[in-house]
Every structure is written in structure tokens, then in C-alpha cells.
Amino acid sequence: MKNNVIHLHPSDCNITLQEEYLCLGGRLDFFNIEQVTQICTNLVAAVSAIKVDLSKVTHSDSSALAMMIALMRNSKNNNQTIEFVNAPKFIVDLGRVCGLDSILPLTYDANRN
Predict the structure, then answer these.
(1) Residues 6+ apart with CB under 8 A from 91
(2) Can you tell me the distance from the alpha carbon of 81 to that of 50, in angstroms, rounded to the nearest whole number?
(3) Measuring CA to CA, which residue among 75, 60, 79 is closest to residue 105?
(4) What is the pLDDT of residues 70-100, one digit of tens each?
């Protein structure tokens, strides 16, 4: 599989696809989430299993949860498996507050604040 790197500006979001890992970094918020979701959906279209690495996300609002749900729905419709790994605590906490922690396949990066 070819590695893809996409930098969105001025949104300060980086998207990298390496093998089965889709790595997101920077900001995930209301201002860029629609574009980020579309790019991620397109990048993972040909992959049967994907791990979305959130370890480099520095800021997010509830839009990130909407993106994760959209990616999860899309993967289910395409018979793909998806897992969100290395999530920063603020994303895990946001998911818990919104009642999505039992729905999203999300693992927490305990080495981060």
C-alpha cells in the first residue's frame, strides 16, 4: 500500500496513511472536521481493517466524535473493521461525557495527559 500524507491548512491538521494505520494530528474541530472526515473516508476505502491513531491530536471538540462515528458507520457499511487507538485523555473524556464510550472502539494513551 502506498503511504499518503496530507496537510490541511489553515486548519493545522495532518493526515497520514501508513499500511493499516491512519494517523491524525493537530486540530480536529468544527472548522475542519467535514474535510478531514471526507479525506479519511477516501483514504481507507481500499483497506479491510484500519486503526486510526489519534496520538498526535492536540485539540478537538465534539466534532471529532462525530467524525469517529461517521468513519465507524462507513467501515461497517463496507465490511471493514476500525479501531481508534492512542487517544488523548481529552477525547476519551469527551466521549464518556457524551455517552459514547461504550459505542466507540477507542483506546486511551495512558502516557499522555
Answers:
(1) 54, 57, 60, 64, 65, 106
(2) 6
(3) 75
(4) 999 999 999 999 999 999 888 888 888 888 8
DSSP state of 48: S
H/E run at residue 69: helix 63-77
Domain spans, the chain: 4-108
Question: Which superfamily does 4-108 belong to?
Answer: STAS domain (3.30.750.24)
Q: Which of 102, 45, 52 is nearest to 75 (CA)?
A: 45
pLDDT at 63 over 60: yes
**Residue 45 one-letter amino acid:** A
Consecutive H or E run containing 76: helix 63-77
Distances, alpha carbon 2 to alpha carbons 19, 21, 81, 89, 109, in Å:
8, 12, 20, 31, 27
